[in-house]
Design goal:
about 475 residues; Rossmann fold; 3 domains; 9-stranded mixed β-sheet; two-stranded parallel ribbon
């Protein structure tokens, strides 16, 4: 091992150790207990105190694991905290159902589910606080209007037409500074109480108390770990309940990113356990590369968008499988004409990369960041998605092996553009494909980096096969289950 590789390895291990120290330290003194309220998976967070109950709800395509940045410090401050998975999300075995466009449809079911979790929380003399992110904010506003045991609200990245000048009474709206539309909505909600309300100012009128607060340098996802937002939530609940308990707010967001980056970097060291059998990559001329990217970019949506794909109980997953299968199939046909065929996948390398990506990276993400372990209803969905992700990733790995950076970036941008064309062709039916863009970007930043390290040792077919399965897994656990 070269001195440079030794240095990179030591640095990655030090970063991982620091990240684990922060992330595990954030759990200090808190006991997590898994419960069931009917079919709903619930996690109770308990510290040393026995304060008021707080029910925390996640956003669309989220999970209860994504809300632990708020749950842990509240539990350390003595609150009894309950997180749960909405229907169709995380580990919940039942799909969402009803009319997603109607308040009396899907929203009504989620309101009932939240109220069931509130009722299952251990009774206490004080009302139950509610904290939610994104989609959940509208649900919680409606819950608070109905539930007699509902207490103060903390809404993160909120939007709800159910907010008016009188309801909810005790309300904190926290928004990321990089969410201008939602930030304006939060300020408007505060100005229902006082037309002169400013960001960060608590305004009151009779029994109504509100504050709109901006979390600096945060957007719709990073606000889940923004330290200022989490501290503001604790302070707001303390004031509402007349408490003065505190808790440390560690930089769990940065620690999670650091841990996943370290695991990604260490994949390069893992690849060196394989015999060095590199393939000399053949560069693709610019004209051939344009054909390689533009042909599937246009062909896949034009062929797939008109097809009625409603076979799987997951939003747009069946369409995505078809789109990726067509995209990858066209690319494989073009590659067979313009570039030498790679060697067969290396069996040990495929297994090693798959284990590292799914178990090491995946378990870290599942513990500290977002749900990543599929339950039984999602396994056939992952298998169906693999019919599309395998040809797509095999083609992508083959096309990008040895390619300059601009070609690799252009190849991934072409996929996003292709999905965008599909949405434009059928906006109502395929709108939820827009969710896939950040997943694809994160996939190539992490798993794609791992795959390049393995490709340098074994050729592109090994990471193509392994990451085809990993992509199916990642998509299969991300999309909400839905039954009409």
């Amino acid at each position: 091992m070269t001195p440079r590789l030794w240095l990179q390895t030591v640095l990655a291990l030090v970063v991982a150790a620091w990240a684990l120290w922060v992330l595990e330290g954030a759990r200090a003194g808190v006991t997590l207990t898994t419960l069931r309220v009917g079919p709903t998976p619930v996690t109770e967070y308990r510290g040393s105190g026995d304060g008021p109950a707080v029910v925390i709800a996640h956003g669309f395509a989220g999970s209860q694991e994504m809300m632990q940045g708020y749950a842990l410090p509240l539990a350390q401050a003595g609150y009894r905290v309950y997180t749960f998975d909405f229907e169709g999300h995380g580990a919940h075995p039942m799909p969402m159902s009803g009319d997603v466009s109607s308040v009396d449809g899907t929203t009504r079911r989620l309101v009932a589910q939240t109220r069931a979790v509130m009722e299952a929380a251990e009774p206490g003399p004080q009302p139950v606080a509610l904290l939610g992110h994104s989609m959940a904010t509208d649900v919680l506003v409606r819950v608070a209007a109905e539930a007699p045991n509902a207490g103060p609200l903390v809404l993160v990245s909120a939007f709800s037409r159910a907010i008016d000048a009188q309801h909810p009474q005790t309300l904190l709206l926290v928004t990321g500074a990089w969410e201008p539309g939602l930030a304006a909505f939060a300020l408007d909600a505060a100005r229902m109480v006082d037309p002169d309300a400013a960001d960060g100012q608590t305004v009151t009128a009779g029994e109504v108390s509100r504050q709109a607060l901006l979390a600096p340098h945060a957007e719709h996802v990073s606000i889940l770990h923004a330290r200022s937002a989490r501290q503001a939530a604790l302070d707001w609940l303390n004031r509402a309940y007349g408490r003065d308990t505190g808790a440390a707010i560690p930089p769990t967001g940065w620690a999670l990113l650091a841990l996943l980056a370290a695991i990604t970097a260490l994949a390069g060291l893992l690849a060196r356990l394989l015999p060095d059998q590199p393939e000399q990559p053949a560069r693709i001329p610019a004209r051939s590369f344009a054909m390689l990217t533009l042909t599937p970019m246009l062909a896949a949506p034009l062929i797939a968008a008109p097809v009625d794909t409603q076979l799987l109980p997951v939003l747009v997953a069946d369409y995505l499988a078809l789109h990726l299968a067509l995209y990858g199939g066209v690319q494989l046909a073009v590659l067979a004409w313009i570039k030498p065929r790679p060697a067969w996948p290396h069996a040990a390398g495929t297994l090693l990369l798959g284990i590292w990506a799914l178990l090491v990276f995946g378990l870290a993400l599942d513990r500290y960041g977002a749900h990543f372990l599929p339950n039984a209803p999602r396994l056939p969905i992952i298998a169906a998605l693999a019919l599309g992700t395998l040809p797509f990733m095999l083609a992508d790995a083959w096309a990008c092996h040895g390619a300059p950076l601009w070609q690799r970036l252009a190849a991934r941008a072409a996929l996003l553009a292709s999905l965008g064309i599909a949405v434009a062709l059928d906006f109502e039916g395929l709108f939820f494909l827009l969710m896939i863009a950040p997943v694809v970007v994160l996939f190539f930043l992490t798993f794609g980096t791992m795959g390049r390290a393995f490709a340098r040792r074994t050729g592109p077919a090994t990471p193509g096969l392994a990451l085809g399965l990993v992509l199916a897994w990642a998509l299969g656990v991300t999309f909400p289950l839905f039954a009409a």
